[in-house]
Specification:
It is built from 9 helices and 6 strands. Strands 1, 2, 3, 4, 5 and 6 form a 6-stranded mixed sheet that branches. A hairpin with a 2-residue loop joins β2 and β3. α1 runs parallel beside α6 and α4 crosses α5.
């Protein structure tokens, strides 16, 4: 009885952390694409829909760029350490499916991660659902993006595996529509892009990544590092400002009344 109660408490805590992570990730997108009165909002949040079979879904965020759309799913799950070091790869694959897809051995489990993306993107591409205000009516190219907290999903082989899972669940896509390979984006990648979209568009980056690394054997992070995009990456102004505030608080606590220069105050 106590063990079951503790398990329920653990699930509640992880559920709340997942919501907090989703809020943090969507907060980055809101700063990247702020809503402006009188102008079309390029990013929509928490759009709820259903496919032709009546299976419901909710899209965490979607970026509309004329005929191209980016569909985001945010996930804060962690892979099990014991599964990652197990000699049998089947255990790791089962854990990945359980956390970020569909585990066929677990009946009644709700779809997660790539399975959610496959359902929503497939429904949009087939015209089964185009958004509450027809946001996707003119979209012909779709970029599915799974934003994750666990940086170990940056491992290239995992991106290749999850893309295969996504494509296997996607279903038939009609002629004239294109769904790009799945992009695994860590939250650090998203933070790096926050200020950098002043130099290039989000869709431009995903399009280049899909053309040059269609098999996803190279992570998005490594692709950026060895491409021309690396020269255009800017540090997040939001994180820099937050770090500066923390340093100011520490300075006031540790050296009250002293004029101690902070790193950002120094001229390099």
């Amino acid at each position: 009885m106590l063990k079951g109660a503790q398990h329920g408490k653990d699930n509640e805590i992880f559920g709340k952390f997942g919501l907090a992570f989703e809020d943090y990730a969507t907060g980055i997108l809101r700063r990247m694409y702020p809503s402006r009165p009188g102008l079309f909002d390029r990013v929509a949040y928490h759009l709820g829909g259903a496919d032709a079979r009546g299976n419901e879904f909710e899209i965490d965020a979607s970026l509309i760029d004329v005929s191209q759309s980016v569909v985001f799913e945010m996930k804060a799950a962690w892979l099990r350490e014991d599964a990652m070091i197990d000699d049998m790869p089947d255990r790791l694959l089962a854990d990945i499916r359980a956390k970020y897809g569909v585990d066929p051995k677990r009946k009644g489990e709700r779809p997660k991660g790539v399975a959610q993306l496959a359902r929503s993107v497939g429904a949009i591409a087939r015209g089964e659902w185009l958004g509450p205000n027809a946001e996707f009516a003119h979209s012909t190219t779709f970029y599915p993006v799974l934003v994750v907290h666990d940086t170990r999903l940056d491992t290239p082989a995992l991106g290749h595996f999850l893309d295969g899972e996504f494509m296997g669940l996607l279903g038939t896509i009609p002629s004239g529509k294109r769904v790009a390979p799945l992009t695994i984006m860590t939250v650090q990648d998203l933070e790096n892009l926050e200020s950098s979209v002043a130099n290039f568009s989000f869709v431009e980056l995903l399009d280049a990544y899909s053309r040059e690394c269609p098999d996803r054997l190279r992570s998005l992070h490594n692709f950026i590092a060895y491409s021309d995009f690396s020269k255009q990456i800017l540090p997040s102004s939001y994180l820099l400002e937050g770090s500066q505030q923390v340093l100011e608080l520490l300075k006031d606590e540790l050296f009250p009344g002293l004029d101690v220069p902070l790193p950002a105050d120094r001229v390099l």
